[in-house]
Amino acid sequence: MKKIALSALVVASLFTAPAFAGNPVANKATASTAKPADAAYKVQPQLSKLGWEGKAVTHGHNGTADFTGGEILVRGNQIVGGTVTVDMKTLKATDITDAENNAKFMGHINSDDFFSTAKNPTATFKIKSVTPIKGAAADANNVNITGDLTIKGITNSVTFPAKAGVKNGVAAASGVATVNRTKYDIKYGSKSFFEGIGDKAIYDDFTLSFNVIAKK
């Protein structure tokens, strides 16, 4: 059957992935990070969402994965750091409705061709900096987040826009990150490494959509 990479993080990911609502934060960031935190808020896995989408030349797939925990570092009404963890064994493809085909697809996604989840059961994202986007509208992405995304035990720096802030004891960040899977030794079906595969090629980039909620 046709197969495609997930994306992760992790910290998914690879979007026509679902957009996750329910972000309670409307505060606008006003300064860069690299400041010490006043408090560490605990990530709420039951309130947080992670979606992924990967595409090939002729098709694509999307799904979800679960956060297991982490902490968000807060100073005032700003997020200034933190780490989140994803349980890679919770990866799901939500667009494949046939149970047999879904099981086959996920078996391949969990294999060494892709995420090696038996050997690497978690992915993590560690925030290194949060930089305000000048002139951002109230309902738009207001920061650029840079951090270390670790998948399959391999760590690379990624940067993506997000809407983030802190209000009434709740810290939240939502957005979409684009990840190059080949940087995490996920090369299956990549034209960058296998010539002549034509329409069987899987694109290197996948997207992750996220909504992370943390509380005091």
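the 2nd protein, sequnce then structure:
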Amino acid sequence: MEWDAPAVVLDVRPHGEGGAIVSVMTEAHGRHAGLAKGGTSRGQAALWQAGNLVEARWVGRLADQLGAMSAEMVHPAAALAMEDPLALAALRAACAVAEGALPEREAHPRIFHGLVAFVATLARDTALALPDLVRWEADLLAELGYGLDLARCAVTGGTEDLAFVSPRSGRAVSEPAAGEWRDRLLPLPRFLLGQGPSTAADWAAGLRLTGHFLARDVFGVQHKGLPAAREMLLDRVAAAT
């Protein structure tokens, strides 16, 4: 049993003497782990960094084995983000969310391509990549069956002045309909509606929005909290507002 595919490195854990259990995401094989011999060695450590785009190869005697993983570098996203703390935090957060949220060996092509697009945008402009990350998390929620309904107001049915999201239903609420409940609702950043540019305050609002539903509906059912890397990203973005 074997396959070769473009992949995003999600996670790496030391294993044995110089080895590593690595986790990657591919289009057809989903989140997939394997043993990288020498994965923590000086020669391979830079390869197996979360966020890197690689050409991965997995080989196993049986389909359900851990198997052996090897790879060649395609895009060193982690190294490129090293000089930008916000970019590096965003990269690590996205990989941690994918690693923790996605079922193993279950294909999610839309999420894979969205993650690759985010990594590519991050290499060009962090300010463009942060909204992409929030949109990708919203797509991930939808892919796992917990999609947000931002098309119309849950109260009036209208499509104008959508400004909040119900933390219970995930449905949008308009500014006029929010009334006395506005302090209990989650702000809806306009970039999630495809409207206008965004600021750090908008990114923070978006991360709080998707983070609420990821924590409740995805990680909560696993009896886990949001990954630490995701929490650290929100703290860093909020501090910049």
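The beta strands are 2-15, 19-26, 30-36, 53-59, 68-75, 162-165, 172-174, 186-187. Helices lie at 77-81, 85-101, 109-124, 126-143, 175-178, 200-219, 228-239.
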